[in-house]
Prior knowledge:
Elements: H1 2-10, E1 26-29, H2 43-51, E2 56-63, E3 69-71, E4 76-77, H3 78-81, E5 83-86, H4 92-98, H5 105-112, E6 117-122, H6 130-141, E7 150-154, H7 157-161, E8 171-175, H8 179-189, E9 193-197, H9 203-211, E10 215-219, H10 224-232, E11 237-240, H11 243-257
Amino acid sequence: MRAADAVTARAxxxxxxxxxxxxxRIVAHRGxxxxxxxxxxxxxxxxxxxxxxxxxxxxxxxxTRDHTAIVHHDPDGRxxxxxxxxxxxxxxxxxxxxxxxxPTLDTVVARYGRHLHLMIxxxxxxxxxxxxxxxxxxxxxxxxxxxxxFHIMSMSLPLLATxxxxxxxxxxxxxxxxxxxxxRAVAAHGYGGLTGHYSLIGRRRIAALHRRGRRIGTGFxxxxxxxxxxxxxxxxxxxxxxxxxxxxxxxxxxxxCG
Length: 258
């Protein structure tokens, strides 16, 4: 991925035409953060995303032992909070006590729903149960309209297939090296589209998905060159770790075109 980033950042690419800029949909991967002053997947990171006028927010969901849906990427809090206990082994009160910056999915939906398009990645875990997943997602996302206000994503095709409480058009597989299998799952289950690394999703795949009315998101679009490339390929959602920089670039370009 680093090699792909280096190539796309430096490759000479023609700037997109003026009419393309208003269609850009930037998705801030885990919010706007630096993991020093502002931590990823926290309300502070999401507040910054919202304040910048960025279109979408990607966040990660896991479940505690007492079935509370929380927003955090890792299976434990070691990397960010120095807490080794797996999240799925803790109750929500215990997790809140040792990692107070981790929010619940309910809080994120109430605070940012309809202000940001929520790209919610459901993380797999040993104790995940379909009934728990479906009940908590349905309850948390009731105020929002599927596909218009949010999408559910997962790198696990079997896990995504268990999400039955929400329309399939609001579900998106995240492809790794299994792009072909993920694309087949889109067709078989009626998912709303496909996401994955930009270097793995080719133009033919993009064209085929668009012909079937599906959408495509790629990441991580972290440079001007990569942004131009993905816009030229007609990508619908641009996932990035540099959302502020790309948002400023898009805003300037759209303003100049206007």
